[in-house]
Amino acid sequence: MLKPTTVLRRFIEEAENTYGPKLRYSSVALVPEGEISNPFTSFCTDETNQSRMAIVLLGERTFADEALAEYQLAHEAIHCLAGSMPTTCLEEGLATHFSLHNSVINGDRAKRLENVLDQERTAYLALIRQLLCKWPNAIRDLRHGGARPFGEIKIAELVEYGVSQELAEILCKSTDEWRTLRLPGS
Questions:
Q1: What pTM does this model have?
Q2: Which domain of life is it from (predicted)?
Q3: Distance between CA 83 and CA 62 in Å, rounded?
Q4: Is the N-terminal amide bond of 149 cis, ω within 30° of 0?
Q5: CA distances for 84 relative to 79, 107, 153, 183, angstroms
Q6: 168 and 159 in contact (C-beta within 8 Å)?
Q7: Residue 13's closest CA among 109, 80, 66?
Q8: Distances, alpha carbon 71 to alpha carbons 30, 41, 62, 151, in Å
C-alpha cells in the first residue's frame, strides 16, 4: 500500500470530483493514535476562523491491515471534505457509502466489507442509499457544487427536491441525536 497520507489525499481528491470541493483548510494531518476504536477527523481553526487544519486520527491497528486502512481512510476523506460538528446522519451515511464504493474498494471487496459493518453503520448506509437511489447527484446538488459543510444542508432543501419529510428529518439529525432516539439508553 502507498503511504497512508498519499492514500487519504487520493481519496479526498476522488470525493471532491464526485461530491464537490472540500472546505478550505491549509493541511491534513494523519496521526496514529494508539488504541482508539473508531477513527475520527477533527478540525482546528485559528483565532480568525480562517485557517483550518483537518486532523485524522486512526488507531495504530489500522496501519497493520491494508484493507481496514483503505476503508477507514476513504471514510475519513468524506469528513475531511465537508465535515460538520455535530456530524449528521447524511454525512456519516455518505462516509460509509464512499468507504465501500470508490476507485480502490468496490465489487466483491465492498460486499465483504459491508457484511462486517456494525448495526449503526449499516443503518446510516441504508439512509444514504435511499437518498442516492432517488437522487444520484444529491450531495453535489445540495452543496451547490461548492464547498458547503454537510451540516448546513436543511430539511426543507431535501423536501424541495422530493425527499420524504421523514427521511429528510433523519438525514439532518446529528448522529448522537439519532442514536439516542433509535437506541434509548445509549
A1: 0.87
A2: Bacteria
A3: 21
A4: no
A5: 8, 30, 10, 23
A6: yes
A7: 80
A8: 15, 14, 10, 23
Per-residue pLDDT of 159-174, as tens digits, reads 998 999 999 999 999 9
* Span 79-103, pLDDT tens digits: 888 877 789 999 999 999 999 999 8
Nearest to 77 by CA among 127, 128, 136, 4: 4
Pairing of strands 27-32, 52-58: parallel
Using CA atoms, how far residue 61 sits from 10, 32, 35, 38, 47, in Å, is: 21, 9, 7, 11, 35
Q: Which of 101, 132, 102 lies closest to 114, judged by CA?
A: 101
29's grid cell = 494531518
Please give the grid coordinates belonging to residue 156.
Answer: 426543507
User: What type of residue is 101?
Assistant: H
SS3 labels along the chain: CCCHHHHHHHHHHHHHHHHCCCCCCCEEEEEECCCCCCCEEEEEECCCCCCEEEEEEECHHHHHCHHHHHHHHHHHHHHHHHCCCCCEHHHHHHHHHHHHCCCCCCHHHHHHHHHCCCHHHHHHHHHHHHHHHHCCCHHHHHCCCCCCCHHHCCHHHHHHCCCCHHHHHHHHCEHHHHHHHHCCCC
**Residue 112 and residue 26: Cα distance in Å, rounded?**
35
Q: Hey, where are the domains in the chain?
A: 4-182
